[in-house]
Design goal:
This protein is globular. With 204 residues, it is an all-alpha fold. It is built from nine helices and no strands. Helix 4 packs antiparallel against helix 5.
Length: 204
């Protein structure tokens, strides 16, 4: 899928994973969520060498070649999950889950519409697996013009839906965080504020 869709998909998946970890919104900082979003797009860094190899033709029919790299495998998801553990970061479990889930969201989305899927069983198999309905139905017909054809095709609604979901989740989370902050500030005893209230909640 396209970059905006990967960002939205990784964001939604990371938020859902952290919610399932039962992390209260007030305790989860933006760090793990941002890490999950970055993990959801970092796999496409393998487009850079493809660009140097093919030039702007990398946006044509050969675009799927970049998925042959290790960045588009579950092994890389494990690597992103282990990085916070080895760095001994606070909330390591949240960071590790965010990195792993963000990357897996990328692999799942790359298995839905365009391209030939992902090497899900690498290194045991280099076969690509995926639904990839756009490529299967229209790949030969669209050829190197697949991008311009795809964004005007009804199948692109799938990408728009995921992007819209990311926007809605972001708005809901912002509203929830604001509500939490108002509740916390409303419970403050201003006479004892300097001694009892964390710095992040001080109003002066």
């Amino acid at each position: 899928m396209l970059l905006p869709t990967h960002i939205a998909g990784a964001y939604c998946a990371t938020e859902a994973a952290l919610f399932l970890l039962r992390r209260p919104r007030s305790e989860v900082c933006r760090g793990p969520i941002l890490y999950g979003v970055v993990a959801g797009v970092v796999s496409d860094l393998d487009l850079v060498p493809l660009f140097f190899k093919l030039g702007w033709k990398f946006l044509g029919g050969e675009a799927g070649q970049h998925r042959e790299s290790i960045l588009h495998t579950l092994i890389f998801a494990v690597v992103l999950a282990l990085v916070p553990v080895f760095l001994r970061m606070r909330e390591r479990s949240a960071w590790a889950v965010a990195g792993c889930v963000g990357l897996i969201s990328h692999l799942v989305l790359d298995s839905l519409t365009i391209g030939w899927g992902i090497m899900w069983f690498y290194p045991f198999s280099i076969k690509f697996y995926g639904i990839n309905i756009a490529t299967r139905w229209y790949g030969a017909q669209w050829g190197d013009k697949w991008l311009s054809k795809y964004i005007w095709h009804p199948l692109f609604i799938i990408e728009l839906a995921i992007m819209s979901a990311g926007f809605v989740v972001a708005r809901l989370r912002t509203s929830a965080r604001n509500s939490d902050c108002k509740t916390l500030v409303g419970d403050v005893d201003y006479q004892t504020m300097p001694e009892t209230v964390p710095d992040r909640l001080r109003l002066y």
